[in-house]
Structures are given as structure tokens and as C-alpha cells.
Specification:
heterotrimer; A mainly alpha (about 220); B mainly alpha (about 55); C mainly alpha (about 260); A: about 220 residues; mainly alpha; globular; B: about 55 residues; about 0% strand
């Protein structure tokens, strides 16, 4: 049991070290996130009432798009240099190794994304309740995005045509977006967001249980 | 119901008949396109077989 | 024990491409006949016989196209996901072929459901579209179908394509109960369940019967269209076998 934990932590550490060495790989999507959000006040004028209504939606949608950009990084470099094949041949369950990589992705990208999103929300003067809702939905949502994203990246590694990943992922991300935005809306008018949060939490638990093994299966299919 | 009544569908003619029209197009395409593809595949394979001989 | 053995043998025989190709012609003949009969009965019953609805007038007749299309969009997705799963687990070629061939048909039905729904919505609700739970999740279903089709064409090796597609289809299965139960779980603009509720359906029998005919018509249509595509794929998969070469040779002789 503790052997599995050690392997998990080893892979986790390895991925994080690699990410710090190639800072661009995880900073670029964050920069993309910030830049796209800035585009909106530029387009609508920072005092626009319309903009105030759209802000949390803009933050969430841009978070989705930035996540799609960052996902390639989980598996691409490892796929290209053959490490993934080595992982599938290892005597440890691929599911465990994949869980480590997904966790690494969330720590490297999801968590900073969460903090950056809160920062942008603060800068764009969102109300306190909206910020709270944004925080909780992103806290629950970003791991779901990493998990579901990992499945889709595993299916599409190395295929020409970068758009395919986005086309496959975004329909799967839509429920997360829908429930998060429902929560944010309810929070901004002062209503309880318990139902939406429960739903998101349920999705998170489902993703945690099923995504790693599905990703591992997808990797095996692609590498056979 | 007279023929005019039938065609005008109580004033909803555009809506009802465009729906059935789209349905007809979708169904017909789902028969014609696969049949054409099958014919093409068979002809291509036959040509390949003849060339081998 | 012998029943199990017989079933086992029948299942494997059924899954053999050549056998399936042969019996598919017989199946098609039947489904075409049933399909045409059901369409005639359903259309006549729905367009002529059924009385106009109390609230919706004649526009409710769009239901006879919209509801079967919507049900089929869900049904075909389940067939696609399940046969994909069977192909994934037991490596049965025919299951892969059925999954891949079902996708364009399912996408067509989803598109048809969305289009006829929008057309029906305009006079009834005053709007072509609304972002309620059922319409949105049905739209997501369309994207899932299109994504599946795009994924299939991205691979050169058909078998890898089929297995990757199976995973995608299985992941997207979560959407199906959402679509079905959306009208019960959320307050939506879309009408609630009237037929699939477990107690007595709240639709009048004279309106229900043509609908059932139309549903059967759509189902047999799906099988007919599916079998054409499946036959084509079987030929492509089995091109190098002697039975296909013989079949094409005979066909050649007949047409010449």
C-alpha cells in the first residue's frame, strides 16, 4: 500500500519538477487566460453595465479554453519521448501512474488558474457573494476539468489536427460550466447555491473514481 | 377535412410542412448516401480485382 | 448447458461478418416492409385521423416527427455506446462496425429532433430556442455524435479508431439520463413526460397510436439504413477474403 503511495508521489514530484523546468508550458495557458479576459473590458469599455453582468461567465469560459490548451502538456512530451510506453510496461498499475499525472496537472495548472481567476474577479470588481461562488465552483470544477480532459487527451495524443481535442472536450465540459454558472447566478442574487454545489461535488467524485482508469484504458488503446 | 384544410393545417402550414419536409430530406439522405457509397466501394473493389487478374 | 452452448455458438456465428452479411439481406427486406407500412399508417393516423389538439391546434402534428426523432437520437446513442463497449471488451469486429455505422444516423436524428423542435417551439412558445435543460442537453448530444464521427476519421487504423470511439461514447453516456430526466429534475419550458411515465399516459389514445406507428417506422428505418452501412464496412474489412472476392466477381459477371 505504501509502495503505491511512494510511486504516486514519485511520479507527482517528477511531473512537477519537469513543469518547473519548462515553465512556459504551464505559464503560457495562464497568460492566455489573463489576456483573453482583458480583451473584454477593452471591447466593451470598462464601465459597461453589460460587462458587469458577463464577467463571471467570461472568467469561466476563458478558464475552460485555457485548460484545453494546458491539457496537451500532460501527455504530449511523455508520448513523444516514449516515457508513456515505459509507464504502460511498468509493473505498477497504469491507473495509479495516470492519477499521479492528472494530480500534477491540477497542482501545476488548475490551482494557479483558480487563484488567477479570483484575482481577475477582484480586479473586475465582482461582488463578494459572486467571488465566493466563483471560488467554490472553480475549486470543484478545475479538478473535474483536469480529469475529464485527461481522458480526451489520452484518446487524441499525437493526432494531426489540434482542433479535435477541443471539439471532443468542450461538449463534455458543458455540464460543469452550466452548473457553475447557475451557482454563480444564484449567489449574485443572494440565493442558496447548495444544489448546484452538490451536483458539482457529485460530478467530481464520479470523475475521480472513473477518469483515471478510463484514461489508462485510452492510453493502452493508443499505444497498442 | 378538405384538401385545403389539410394543407393549411389550421394556419400552421409553414411550421408543420417544413418539419415534415426536413424529416423527409433527412430520411431520404440516410438511404441514398449509404447506397451510393456501397456502390462506389463495390465498383472500386471490382476494378482492383480485375487489375490483379 | 446445451442451451448455453447453442447460444454461444449462435452468438459467434452471428458475429461472423460473412454470416451477418448474408442474413442482413433477409433482415433488410423485412425492416423495409415494416418501415413503409408503419410510415403509411403513422402518417395517415397522425396527419388525417388524429383530432386537432385542444391547446395547440394543428401544429401538434409536428410531434409525429419530433418525438420519434428525439427518442431515436437517444436509442441510437445507446446502441453506439453498448456495441462500442462490446467491441472494446470482446474484440468483436461486427460490434465496432455497428457502432461506427450508427453514428451518422444518430446524428441525423438528433439534428432532426432539434430542428423540428425549434420549428414547433416558434408558434407554441414564441421562440425558436431556449437554453433549458432538455434542449441544451440534446444539443450537447449532437456535439457528442459529431465529436465521435470526427474522432473516427482521425485514425488510419480502424480498430484503434473503433476502440477510442467506444471510450468516447461510453464517457458521453452520462448525458443520456440527463436528457431523459431533465424535464423531471428541472422546471423546463419543454413539456414534461407524457408517455414514458409509469402510470397511465396522459395523451389520448387516438393521438398515441399514430405516434407508436411512427416510432416503429423510425426504428425499422434506422435498422435498414444501418444495415446498408454495415454491409459496406464488412466489404471493406473483409476485402481480402475469398468470399468477398467471389461475391464481387459474381456481381461483376451479373452486371456485365
Amino acid at each position: 500500500m505504501s509502495e503505491y503511495l511512494n510511486i504516486f508521489l514519485t511520479i507527482l514530484q517528477r511531473d512537477m519538477k519537469l513543469a518547473f523546468r519548462n515553465k512556459a508550458e504551464f505559464i503560457n495557458p495562464l497568460m492566455f487566460f489573463v489576456i483573453v479576459i482583458i480583451l473584454f473590458p477593452l471591447a466593451f469599455g470598462s464601465d459597461s453595465a453589460l460587462l458587469k453582468q458577463l464577467t463571471s461567465g467570461i472568467i469561466w469560459v476563458t478558464a475552460l479554453l485555457a485548460t484545453v490548451l494546458s491539457l496537451e502538456a500532460i501527455f504530449r512530451t511523455d508520448f513523444e519521448d516514449g516515457s508513456i510506453e515505459q509507464l504502460t510496461l511498468a509493473r505498477y498499475p497504469l491507473t495509479l501512474l495516470v492519477s499521479a499525472k492528472i494530480t500534477a496537472h491540477w497542482i501545476i495548472f488548475g490551482l494557479p488558474l483558480l487563484l488567477t481567476a479570483l484575482l481577475t474577479g477582484f480586479i473586475l470588481s465582482l461582488s463578494e457573494q459572486t467571488m465566493m461562488a466563483l471560488f467554490i465552483t472553480l475549486l470543484l470544477g478545475t479538478p473535474i476539468l483536469s480529469l475529464i480532459g485527461a481522458i480526451t487527451v489520452a484518446l487524441t495524443i499525437g493526432l494531426r489536427g489540434g482542433m479535435l481535442l477541443s471539439l471532443l472536450i468542450l461538449p463534455l465540459y458543458m455540464p460543469v460550466l452550466i452548473f457553475s454558472m447557475l451557482a454563480v447566478e444564484n449567489a449574485s442574487i443572494g440565493q442558496s447555491i447548495a444544489a448546484e454545489i452538490y451536483f458539482l461535488a457529485g460530478m467530481l467524485v464520479l470523475a475521480i473514481t472513473l477518469a483515471p482508469i478510463t484514461t489508462a484504458t485510452a492510453l493502452r488503446i493508443r499505444l497498442s | 377535412m378538405s384538401l385545403t384544410d389539410f394543407l393549411s393545417m389550421g394556419g400552421y402550414a409553414t411550421y408543420v410542412w417544413s418539419s415534415y419536409g426536413i424529416c423527409a430530406v433527412v430520411l431520404i439522405l440516410n438511404i441514398i448516401l449509404p447506397l451510393r457509397r456501397k456502390g462506389k466501394v463495390m465498383r472500386d473493389f471490382q476494378k482492383r480485382l480485375l487489375r490483379k487478374e | 448447458m446445451s442451451l448455453y452452448k447453442n447460444l454461444h455458438r449462435w452468438f459467434h456465428q452471428f458475429a461472423s461478418p460473412k454470416y451477418f452479411y448474408d442474413i442482413s439481406h433477409t433482415i433488410s427486406r423485412w425492416t423495409v416492409i415494416i418501415c413503409i407500412v408503419c410510415f403509411v399508417c403513422g402518417l395517415y393516423g397522425g396527419l388525417v385521423l388524429a383530432p386537432a389538439d385542444y391547446q395547440q391546434g394543428e401544429s401538434f402534428r409536428i410531434m409525429y416527427v419530433h418525438v420519434p426523432a428525439a427518442w431515436m437520437s437517444l436509442f441510437v446513442y445507446m446502441v453506439m455506446a453498448i456495441s462500442g463497449g462490446i467491441g472494446l471488451i470482446w474484440h468483436i469486429k461486427l460490434a465496432d462496425i455497428v457502432a461506427r455505422s450508427s453514428a451518422p444516423i444518430g446524428a441525423s436524428f438528433t439534428f432532426l429532433a432539434l430542428a423540428t423542435g425549434a420549428i414547433w417551439g416558434k408558434p407554441m412558445w414564441g421562440t425558436w430556442w431556449v437554453w433549458d435543460a432538455r434542449l441544451t442537453s440534446e444539443l450537447i448530444l449532437l456535439f457528442l455524435y459529431l465529436g465521435y464521427i470526427a474522432l473516427q476519421s482521425a485514425f488510419e487504423d480502424r480498430r484503434v479508431a473503433a476502440r477510442a470511439g467506444a471510450i468516447l461514447a461510453l464517457v458521453g453516456t452520462v448525458n443520456i439520463p440527463i436528457i431523459h430526466y431533465s424535464v423531471e429534475w428541472w422546471s423546463t419550458l419543454h413539456q414534461g413526460p407524457t408517455i414514458t411515465k409509469l402510470d397511465k399516459p396522459s395523451i389520448h389514445v387516438s393521438m398515441l397510436i399514430p405516434l407508436l406507428f411512427m416510432v416503429l417506422a423510425f426504428k425499422t428505418f434506422y435498422i435498414t439504413s444501418l444495415l446498408i452501412r454495415v454491409r459496406t464496412e464488412i466489404l471493406e474489412y473483409e476485402y481480402n477474403t475469398s468470399w468477398v472476392k467471389q461475391l464481387l466477381g459474381n456481381h461483376n459477371n451479373v452486371t456485365n
